[in-house]
Task: inverse folding
């Protein structure tokens, strides 16, 4: 199956080894988070960060894909939305706008509507008169977040356990979008990573839930990111990319959105951008359950760039942290074969086949939405390592 074409992100030259945001950018973000309601002047922000304004602007674009003012605006809008959703009866939209750094109400309302698809007054009315029962929603939220680490594991046993846990919140609160998005991601995993014998059924269910979650939670950054991942696994990359960009606009600091952003770039063959974005995710959340997904994504990016030794090390670290993610070991096996280490590749392939005995190179070539060159090289490497052709 061919991979849909998307314009890849520009290669802006960061060294592939980069593993964190620059210190000046970290200082700027820390300062901005505590001064969001205040006017932001680039010269002041540059002085806080310790670098010239042009350097700071370049780092914002390089690592976060926006400008200092653009990042600030997104964070102000996100905080304003939370304030509107949790407003007291005495609160007003104007007060919320002023508290979050918006001095011109008309501009605030326009920017808010562009970001969230509704006027701030409507958000406030919904927050003050919620249609959902607070008790049911509270319990549904608890059950959903209890299942989330299992979904992030991307491993067969954990995936199935997550789906069992997600039945509760979906039944308890059918109009709550997040559990449907998590379930969509899990059903997509089953279909793409050989976690079940019913991939067609699982994929159809994944897509239905992904679309339902987007309809119910169009402004929930986490739900959008999870549903985007489900669409990627079904090869609907353009639609997935749009949802992911919206998620990052809603919450630029969401680590999982940066994980998915990095994987998207890797799928598109833009290795250096993928490494940069996954580095951002690691900086935001350098621990599980997202660490191993970032590591495996790094390995895939290095594999695409022909840096096979690095690919092996990154994938090995990722799978070592989450042994249930053995599906990623295919990349390490193929990378070992491409280095010319046939005996090591065959040894690794035997280990993989003990966990995935029905794997074939032909099936592996069709499993994931990487570029045709990546998937061809993956299949060739698996065959060299002794994985059956078909």
Result:
């Amino acid at each position: 199956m061919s991979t849909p074409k998307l314009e890849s992100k520009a290669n802006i030259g960061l060294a592939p080894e980069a593993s964190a945001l620059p210190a000046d950018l970290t200082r700027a973000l820390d300062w901005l988070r505590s001064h969001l309601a205040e006017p932001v002047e680039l010269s002041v922000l540059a002085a806080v960060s310790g670098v010239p304004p042009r350097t700071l602007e370049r780092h914002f674009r390089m690592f976060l894909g926006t400008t200092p003012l653009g990042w600030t605006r997104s964070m102000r809008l996100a905080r304003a939305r939370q304030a509107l959703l949790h407003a007291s009866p005495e609160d007003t939209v104007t007060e919320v706008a002023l508290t979050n750094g918006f001095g011109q109400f008309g501009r605030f309302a326009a920017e808010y509507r562009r970001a969230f698809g509704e006027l701030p007054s409507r958000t406030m009315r919904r927050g003050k008169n919620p249609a959902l029962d607070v008790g049911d929603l509270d319990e549904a939220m608890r059950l959903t977040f209890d299942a989330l680490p299992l979904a992030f594991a991307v491993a067969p046993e954990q995936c199935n356990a997550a789906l069992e846990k997600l039945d509760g919140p979906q039944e308890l609160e059918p109009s709550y979008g997040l559990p449907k998005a998590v379930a969509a991601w899990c059903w997509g995993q089953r279909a793409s990573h050989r976690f079940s014998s019913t991939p067609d059924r699982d994929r159809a269910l994944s897509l239905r839930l992904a679309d339902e979650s987007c309809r119910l939670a169009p402004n929930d950054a986490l739900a959008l990111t999870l549903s985007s991942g489900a669409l990627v696994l079904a090869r609907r990359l353009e639609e997935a990319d749009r949802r992911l960009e919206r998620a990052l606009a809603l919450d630029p600091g969401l680590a999982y959105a940066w994980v998915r952003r990095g994987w998207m770039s890797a799928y598109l063959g833009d290795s250096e951008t993928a490494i940069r974005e996954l580095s951002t995710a690691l900086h935001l959340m350098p621990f599980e359950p997202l660490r191993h997904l970032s590591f495996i994504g790094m390995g895939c990016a290095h594999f695409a760039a022909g840096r096979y030794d690095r690919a092996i090390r990154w994938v090995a670290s990722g799978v070592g942290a989450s042994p249930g993610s053995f599906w990623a070991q295919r990349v390490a096996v193929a990378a070992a074969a491409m280095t010319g280490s046939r005996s090591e590749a065959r040894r690794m392939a035997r280990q993989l086949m003990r966990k995935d005995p029905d794997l074939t190179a032909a099936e592996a070539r069709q499993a994931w939405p990487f570029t045709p060159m990546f998937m061809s090289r993956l299949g060739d490497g698996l065959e060299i390592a002794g994985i059956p052709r078909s």
The domain at 23-128 is CATH 1.10.10.60 (Arc Repressor Mutant, subunit A).
